[in-house]
Amino acid sequence: MITVSSARKNYGDFLALDDVELEIPSGSLTALLGPSGSGKSTLLRAIAGLETLDAGVVCIAGVDVSREPPQRRGIGFVFQHYAAFRHMTVRDNVAFGLTIRRRPKAEVRRKVDELLEIVGLDGLQHRYPAQLSGGQRQRMALARALAVDPQVLLLDEPFGALDATVRADLRQWLRRLHDEVHVTTVLVTHDQQEALDVADRIAVLNKGRIEQVGDPVSLYERPANDFVMSFLGSVARLAGHLVRPHDIVLDRDLAVVQRDDARAPSSPGVVSAAIERVVRLGFEVRVELRANTGERFAAQITRAEADRQRFVAGETVHARATRPLDATDTDPSLAI
Amino acid sequence: MTTAIQHREDLTVSSSPPARPAGADPAPPGRRLRAPGRALGVGVVGLWLSVIVLLPLAALTVASLEQGLAGSWEAVTSPAALAALRTTLLVSAVVALVNSVMGTLIAWVLVRDHFPGQPIINALIDLPFALPTIVASIVLLSLYGPNSPIGVQLNATRWGLIVALAFVTLPFVVRSVQPVLIELEREVEEAAASLGASASTTFRRVVLPTLAPAIISGTGLAFARAVGEYGSVVLIGGNLPRETQVVSQYIQQQIEIDRPVNAAAVSVALLSVSFLTLFVLRLWGSRSQRRQERTS
Ligand SMILES: Nc1ncnc2c1ncn2[C@@H]1O[C@H](COP(=O)(O)OP(=O)(O)OP(=O)(O)O)[C@@H](O)[C@H]1O
Ligand SMILES: [Mg+2]
After folding, report:
1. At what angle do helices B208-228 and B260-293 cross, to 10 degrees?
2. Structural domains of chain B, ranges and CATH numbers in brackets
3. How far is CA B231 from CA A125, B133, B145, B164, B275, in A?
4. Chain B contact for A79, CB < 8 A?
5. Residues A39, A295: Cα–Cα separation, whole Å
6. Per-residue pLDDT reduced to its tens digit, A299-325
7. Predicted model pTM
8. How far is the CA of A189 from the centre of ligand 1 (A)?
9. Dihedral of the CA atoms B226, B231, B235, B239 (nearest 10)?
10. In chain B, which residues have their Cβ closer than 8 Å to the Cβ of A131?
11. How far apart are CA B104 and CA B96, in angstroms?
């Protein structure tokens, strides 16, 4: 378990971490999610000891490591740009942490072989980092970090430098790896898709503060405030309420739209709106509308629904949110 | 473990295609188009090097053989010539070694530390390049000469030679290491630290090997420059035969006493030694360089 309490970090008079409290349970895969400059890397580096806090305490496995250098925190760290040792082969890179600990050669060999197999680089052990693709380099960096049996694995945007397909593959792979290895993992990302995809817990950061911590579903369904809501997915403003675009029903028939009231009784009223544009995005369809109050919003409907209704730009339809998502600050289980 | 390994198979397959640039196909048509351009490049470089380096060297070699191979051999192996060669190589080797350490240290301080006046120090490094070397000699003589204000007299000693040569060769290692050090990501050192390496281990096993090609190449240049140096040693060295007389001074002396063939022969010997040293260092440096930049 990692505990961060009252963490504060200033760069000059800029407050990068503002009284951060965070608990990361053992064996979890926690994502630190937030926009650029929100302090994610600063927090992660403070846990690693690569950055010193101005105030606050970091405990790893119950031990206060606030004064310990990174060498003595039992961590593994993976950087966005791989930080490979370019003059060493893949094997020597992975073996580095063990070699400097003067572990017996046979043990090093066995451990490195095992790790190379886990990360899928067996057969490439004699290559140099320059001879690997970005994804392979990052898997090498991961193996290198895991070689020293860290208590916690810290990843700072590990897939940020890779293209979209490789990134998606690697995060699936990381999730499976985590299910095998079970090392407490903290993953920094600014990509909400990535966080929702791999993490079992997400901590949302904004301007050096933690806005909300929770599992992906509760964060998405019950965001603690407007920031979390709009950061975790797209939102539309309908009759003064924030809603997810896929939670809007559209129909030409007012009765159909109203009929759903029984299912979502607390939902705001029906809005009539003119369709400005219909955009097909593969399996879903985005309908851009302008309410008669002048407010613009977008609804997301399925392709089947779109085929059935055949909306065209210019016509007027009725819209209603089936599931208003306004900030639930009242829910104590989500507030921090 | 098994699942991870199984999944890895499909991952490897799906992740490698986008990682390979499209232009890496074997023998793309563009390669043939480049051939005339390459020939032109090689031609221009060859011509230029011939005019300014190779032909003069050939002429010099021919001149040195005017009295036959035996004559040149005798000229080179005469006790005075040998002594001058020995002094030059010894002093240059010491200077090159000192430079490799001090130059790296200076580059480190200039890149990694921040202190007031740093830009001035940084600009100062190039000064030995800008000064006529005879001025260097005068400057050093005023501090370490017979009227030394600090009571250190190095004139007409090998220490004097070393100080003078260290002065003129100062920029080589500094300026070749500096850009590599700037390029070296801090994250690489942080990665080593996170893996448990102490600062000194990180320096020895991670930083130094990365800097090695630059240090070697800078040291080679410093050595070559020291071997060929004349102006800066002319005053402070004292030109004592067998003691502080360097090859360049010996050659000058041979010309003054009208023995141009001897001068040419010793020059060729000096050239051969310098070339061999540079060649070996370059080979060594580029081997460790290639390891880091090799592409598949
Ligand atoms: N060494 C530094 N000196 C001054 N300011 C810094 C330094 N490091 C970070 N900051 C500032 O602290 C804030 C938080 O930085 P941090 O790197 O933690 O952001 P981040 O959430 O990781 O962003 P990104 O997604 O862009 O990496 C930023 O506004 C940044 O400008
Ligand atoms: Mg960051």
Report:
1. 170
2. 57-295 (1.10.3720.10)
3. 53, 5, 16, 10, 21
4. yes
5. 34
6. 999 998 888 989 999 999 998 888 766
7. 0.80
8. 13
9. 60
10. 294-296
11. 12
A119·B8 Cβ contact <8 A = yes
pLDDT tens per residue across all 296 residues of chain B: 344 444 433 333 333 333 334 333 444 444 455 667 788 888 899 899 888 888 888 888 888 888 888 888 888 899 999 999 999 999 999 999 999 999 999 999 999 988 898 889 999 998 888 888 888 888 888 888 888 888 888 888 899 999 999 999 999 999 999 999 999 889 999 999 999 999 999 999 999 999 999 999 999 999 999 998 988 888 888 888 888 899 999 999 999 999 988 899 999 988 888 888 888 888 887 877 776 665 43
In this structure, the residue with its CA closest to atom 26 of ligand 1 is: A36
Q: Is B142 on the interface with A (CB under 8 A)?
A: no
- Contacts with A235 (C-beta within 8 Å, 6 or more apart), sequence order: A229, A242, A243, A244, A245, A325
Kindly report the nearest CA distance between residue B270 and chain A, in angstroms: 35
Q: Provide the token pair at A144.
A: 């290198």
For chains A and B, CB pairs below 8 A equal 121
Query: How much distance in Å is there from the Cα of B204 to the middle of ligand 2?
Result: 29
First-to-last alpha carbon distance for chain A, in angstroms, is: 18
Q: Which among B19, B212, B292 has CB closest to A128?
A: B292
Beta strands at A55-60 and A2-11: parallel, antiparallel or unpaired: antiparallel
Contact B155, B141 (CB under 8 A): yes
- Residue A12 Cα: closest atom of ligand 1: 4
Ligand number nearest CA of A156 is 2
Residue nearest to atom 19 of ligand 1 (CA): A37
